[in-house]
Amino acid sequence: MRWKTPVEDYKVAKGMTAAELVSQMEASGGFTGKHLAEGANILAEMLADTESVNFLSFPACIIATGVRGIIKDMVKRKLVDVVITTCGMLDHDLARIWKRYYHGEFELDDAMLRNKGINRLGNVLVPNESYGIVLERRLQPMFHDIYKGGMRRPSTRELIQAVGERLKDEDSITYWAARNKIPIFVPGITDGAFGCQLWMFYQEHKDFSPDILADEQELSGIVMGAKRSGALIIGGGISKHHTIWWNQFKDGLDYAIYISTAMEQDGSLSGARVREAISWGKVKPKARYVNIDADATLALPLMYPAVLDKLKL
Fold this sequence. Notes:
By secondary structure, the chain is an alpha/beta fold. It has a domain of 210 residues: Deoxyhypusine Synthase (3-Layer(aba) Sandwich). The protein contains 13 helices and nine strands. The strands form two sheets. A six-stranded parallel sheet has the order 6-2-1-7-8-9, sandwiched between helices. A three-stranded antiparallel sheet has the order 3-5-4. It is globular. The model has no long low-confidence stretch (mean pLDDT 97).
């Protein structure tokens, strides 16, 4: 316990960078701000560790926001080795290549939006033509082309790689993952519009079906071959659990940064703290870790410039 370390005030100046602000958060000693600064330090240490296999785990919702650009940049710069996410990430990442999402409000009349063919994701608005309609129009020809190339029982990683190779938009996470050979695993591949399009394609191509156990086989090789491993885990759900689940087989993560607004009192995996994962062997007891209780759309835009600064990138 460092009880003799004094709390310092922020010294905010004109022209201060995000990296400079985050560096002061550690000295401020104040609540979530301190945890955010610790998270930036641990994340930079994890990414600089050349012997660590680093996972990036996140849910779909943040890809409907500008945070998509930060995730894309991490993949473009090859800062992570493995991505584990949800089907909705593919939905939003791909849909936003071809159509726009729009600003809205949390308090809008949802029945009115329904009548207008507009879907609300928090305070982001997603018109029907920007989601299911455009995904069907664009994905079905891709699936036909992939099928013509001889693919029949791909893992989700192989299928996403094949889709990414057919994209031309450099703002896309899937595009850069394909170019940089960074595997994207989606354990819940049918839980979204991308999966629905797969099901529709399957109606006339019964010999075409993702092999999710092939993903597990590949993940096992990645984890078992890792000297150390780390993870930036944003949010919760299946992407969080799949990341920590597989890392228990190498005695747990060596680095873990959780960013979440979920509470632990309901026993949910989304709200579970790192210390709970330690009890399961999913994170090592002596791991470098932190829980950041914050909305990722606030935390990541502050943390990421600080991490790049620490890495001299």
